[in-house]
Amino acid sequence: MHAISWEQLCRPRKEGCVGLRPLLEIREASALKLAWRFISGGSLWADWMHIRYVKQGNFWTCSPDNNHSVTFKTVLRHKGVLKSAIRRTMKDGSGTDLWRDPWIDRRSLLDIRGSPTHMEDRRGLTCSRILRDGEWRPESYRYTEELGGFIMSTVIDPALPADRWIWEPPGASSGSGEFQFRSCYNLIRNTFPLSSDYEFVWCKGLARKMQLCVYKLLLGRLLTRDRLSSFGVPVPDPKCVLCCLEPESIKHIFFECTLAWQIWLEQSRVLGLYTSGKYIGDIIPVIRDSRGRGQDWFRTARIRLAASVWHVWRERNRRIFEGLVTPPVGILHNIEFDVNAMENG
Asked: Which among 322, 129, 308, 333 has a CA at the least distance from the CA of 241?
């Protein structure tokens, strides 16, 4: 895996990578979880932090200073991201600051209107000012009468014990409203386009060594002789060690070499799959288009493809580093053995 960048390895499998999580992103997601615990309350730590640092003020307008701990500064640093992942559900509005809490479409009235002009509007007004008898009355307050459309989207649930925050990051399916680390992690990481080939690499039941071999093949990162030469590594003979006819390259060794093509023809016969493709990029779409034959067939096709790739690469390495030669019949036998083991494992 040394030929693949760390940034590329640290992406989800559905985005065509290995699915590792970098510690920096784990740290940021954990900090966001801490910020969620703080605003949710209900724990000794959250209550103590609120009394110690926020006091009689409001968390959303609190700014870091030298008297704050590193932990609380970290919580404050994630307020902006936290706002984008939460929404407010009301019981009666008495527990929600009308001006400073981000209860209007993830924004606060302060964000929308700016500071109020009258001093009496700054003195701890709550949303109960415009929420009466379980209904919104935005027209009853001069600063909210034009925001009725946004305010009406805030859910009222009289059955709740109190106003509460709901965890609902953008793009996440609606759930219980409870915090989920997976959606939190997806919120802070960089996203990339989905890969249509990931299911051919991370097939259920496929041996990890075969998964990684196919993964590096799809990326073109296997160290064939032509790539070694491009890196300046001395290569005594650039020809393919399997057929000794053409220069060794990724495309040649797996699908143009006479030995490899003989193996793939046998797998195509077993699967009832016929293709004139000369590269894995040509064969994968054919298998994908034939998945209507059923999930069992589709899984078997992916396993056979990966096993064929791995055994061809293994045979190439055995001939170079060990001086051992296995005839095509023996390679096919080894493929069948591994396929049966993975299908029944």
From this structure: 322
